[in-house]
Amino acid sequence: MLSLLALGAMPFAACADYFTDISHGFALGEVQELMVGEQVAPIIEVESQTPLSQGVAIILVEPFLSNFSLAQSKELADYLSQKGWHVVISPFNMSMMPLSEETASETTDAPSSATDPSDAASSTSNKEGNPGSNNVSIHPRSTNLTQYFDFDDTTQQLSTQLLALNNKLQNVQGYRLVIAQGMIAAAFLDATSKNSNFEPDSFISVSPYWPQHTVNRGISELIASSTFPVLDLSIKGLSDWESKTVVMRRNRAKTSLKLHYRQIILPSSNSVFSLNQNQKTPYIQLVANNTIGWTRYLGW
């Protein structure tokens, strides 16, 4: 709970801090700048290691545990580059709704007001009983994440970043492959449904979900109605929100007669041991191998 409160209290300036941390976390010259609207965002490019390039693979990354970490993204990029892909890692910061002044003051004053439980309880009852209160009633079984993340704003900001990536990569020959996991995968599907210019030649969707019931159920329809091939990778146990739509996504794709759709369930943990220091983590191996297998199936 404390972490969620801290997350909600983060100002929009955290976006700049996130990008700055990324730039400082890599060697000088390894991170390049991308103009996204009026802001400068970092991207990490990994060149193809084969004479003939397959095209460009874009890995969308956001700063939450439900997504690829930067280290995992770099690991995946190195693997794909060995198979002929020019890889671009594009970090994206999720759009958060700012706390109201009233909520922020309550969060700040919480430790002092909590010293007397009876006073805190009476204060709470007074606020709930006040007919003029502007507090929005929250369903007791809803997730706190819905209070901090806005799906439409996230999709709009992601569209701006995708436009900047398209402009930068417009002269790169070959196929266009996009890989995304978690909430950003759901936002990407929504962005492509609203603007066909963002449609890739194929999309690798890893455990897509959004922590809001209506939006989360709509992911299956977004996949089924998409016009590009989709590899739907589902990691067991990653998110309860994602697990609720696994069967729904598969059935909706089948009943819609979607062409080039495949769903694969990946184990949540893998007990693989190797003395080879260059051995990739089992999770990245599974994602990478299934991705390459999917592109081979498409005839690339």
Automatic annotation (TrEMBL):
Residues 100-140 are annotated as: Disordered. Keywords: Signal. Residues 1-16 form the signal peptide. InterPro entries: DUF3530. Residues 107-125 have a biased composition (Low complexity). Pfam families: DUF3530 (PF12048). This is DUF3530 family protein.
